[in-house]
Fold these 4 entries.
Entry 1:
Amino acid sequence: MKVLIAVDGSTFSAAAAKFVRGLPAEKPIEATLVTVINPPDVALSTSTEMWYPQYLEHQQQFAEEALEGIAQTFNDTDDLVDRKVLHGHIGHAIIDHADQIGADLIVVGAKGHSAVGRILLGSVSDYVATHAACSVVVIRPREEHDDSIRHKVSIAFDGTPPAQSALDDFAQFDWSSLEQIQVITASPKLEVFREDILSSIMEEGARRRTEALRTAKAGAEQLQSRGWNVIHKSVEAEHIGEGILEAADAHGSDLVVIGDAGRGTITRLLLGSTSRYVLRHAKQSVWIVRHRNES
């Protein structure tokens, strides 16, 4: 498995490396550590010639030191580690290099938080997660346990091909050390304001709840066959993403896994509304699995 880890010298990129190191893969991981120098646009003049070369030299040195520090995370593993310093727009450079090496996964840290405590994405992690052709994990370290061993995981599953891809990709690893895995199916809550259709809406709601529970159970059974501790849950919510996150929060999950469509032949597809909501509002780390159409 080829994994690109975005490095910027922060604790977030260190957590990203720890996550990759802790992936229970059967074979050694081919990890490429990437940091990007994005020099400011300046007009060349006698003044800038005095400091600009030194500035670039300092940035290069900082980048190399950051890569060296992160590379030590893999010192006592069999994983293969490469390092690369790139130049240009940070998000573009990360995605382009992931394409060049045929990365299966990009792991990047998130930064910043809102006034109400939810951790929001930085511009780089948002750009990469939204535009990358391959799967992306956005890491949000949690104070109580920011190591790479995830205790609980929630997987969104609705039976669609992207959701099945998420389940299949997750099952490539041996998660027997996890405390528990939760498979969630969320369905939209039906609102009714007319008495004459109330009974019909109630019947439709009951049908949807039954189908959602059946779908969640079917997804959980796929993972239970591996001998893991897996539970299933169906929820109703005004927004599917909100329902997924509320269930993940109640479960105490460290990681949320969700599938999303891949890219077209001409342009990259942006995230769907549910994946985007989960990515931008989750307290947890988020693993977005890109589904690739075979046709």
Entry 2:
Amino acid sequence: MFTRRPFSQPDICAAAVDQVSSRIAPHVLRTRLIPWPSLGALIGGSVWIKLENEQHTGSFKVRGAFSALVAPNGQGEEERDASSHIVTASSGNHGAAVAYASAQLGLSARVFVPQGASVAKVDRIRSLGATVERFGTDGLDTELHARALAAQTGARYVSPYNDPRVVAGQGTVALEMLAERPELEVLIAAVGGGGLIGGMAAAARARKPGIRLIGASPAASPIMAESVRAGQIIERAVGPTLSDGTSGGVEPGSITFPLCAALIDEWIDVDESNIALWMRRGYEELGFLMEGAAAVAVAACVSSAARLSGREVGIVICGGNVSDDTRSRVLGGLA
């Protein structure tokens, strides 16, 4: 049985999330929270889904990007970060989010992606106004390179998760969910680097101490979950997964590790067949194709049906960016 570890400041991001919420409000969408009746019936409870696939750039990631790039001045008004040159690392949603936010704020963005990043993803990030460069074969290698280069050049590095302002921005997802549906007893989100679930947990538990947080990971890449179980950030090879948005290692010393170790109640690993199944079921029942990471959270809910019976459950549909190839494989039953 998993036991949460003690943490000296379990509400480390709670106040920051509150402050960030109003600051980024002009820049992000307050996405819909809707019921999924058939999923609720399946678990014998009530299920509500937060549609971050309808967010700018199709992902929750713009919340953290704007939170990192828009800072309050002494009068409580907004000002841009002191550095107008932004560097980040991501071949997917975070890279697109930083590119979009930078363009909206008049900043220049330089995004590093792994050597194997798809041409479609790179083209998308470029189309949002960023310069894209390739480095490394693993996402963590790319992150470490980008951080080092930013330090050398004086640029502002925006981590996908290892930045308190990014984590606070992602935590606004939980604020909106609980404001609209305070009856929620359980929150479930996919986990890669832990920025989304860490920020959500800090914000939610400060408001509702008894709320249950479940982190969901693809079985092919459960690095944060395994790190928490081991009591330290681990390194291990990861396999291919439809949940590409959560795939890869965790940066050494990441601030999200103690948050996840202290605040997440349960960790669930999901195999590829169930990720594909719920991508298809979501498309059939909801009319849109969620990305693999979102389906990981949905599949985790289903696998916990017995424990969630009679509960009010909130799931984050964290994004909807699916490549044409993946769409064809999933809907064709080939994945």
Entry 3:
Amino acid sequence: MTRDFVSFLVAGGIAALANVLSRVAFSHAFRLEVAVVLAYLVGMAVAFVLMRSRVFPPSERSFARQAALFAAVNLVAVLQTLVVTLVLARWLLPAMGIDQHAETIAHVAGVSVPIVTSYFGHKHLSFR
């Protein structure tokens, strides 16, 4: 593994923690689908700041351009996260008899899915 990828994993882990914890809080006020998307926005903001300042080398692109490309890459990732989370929480985990903390388990799995696609998207698009 490259140093960039390890740094990406650490920054992504911090952002994922912010994502999951905020989803738990949002779930008190919103349905799971809405809570997942709102939490993803929290995680995405944390990830952008960390990745721009700590993971990838400075870019000649403007802040606005980097943010727009970062959002585009994350649009794909949030769709991956949402599909995996809902499939696991609504069907697979209950079918396996896992009811306790099913939404959190499903969300952690969902957040983990786009790790590789996001890394390459950010490396070759967002922060190039």
Entry 4:
Amino acid sequence: MKQLGTVAVLLLLSGIVARPAAAQKPINLALVNPVQIVKEDESISAFRFNLLYGKNASMQGFDLGLGNHLTGDMKGVQWGAVNIVGGSFTGWQSGFVSINTGEVEGLQWSAFNSAGRINGLQLAIINYAQHANGVQIGLVNIIKEGGMFPVMIIANWGFED
């Protein structure tokens, strides 16, 4: 019984001293990480401009810059020379290179696109998806699993049940 009381006190104290989840910041401006207004482990909720390279946890809104890097999810529009999203992406992503390790729902339009899973449309010279529930249009189109063809020119598609 005494152990149960100790566990309850520890749980209560951990809840009191635990840091609340960081609120999203509305805007971030970055020259090159770490020279940016909002720290890289924080999220942005409206607009981010990365002159050379910016890195944050996640983002909702409009992301613009030469190098756009998010370790988590992105929802909105992302335009940049290089776009890297470590989580899922929902919206429209354009650039020279767009790389997503998670799922992309929407449009990827770059010279080179890569996605863990595409639910939508990829337009590029080279498109790559681990899994596909959508269409790829480009010079070289690769769908590792679930595509009509593993590699195809002009167009490739995959529709999972």
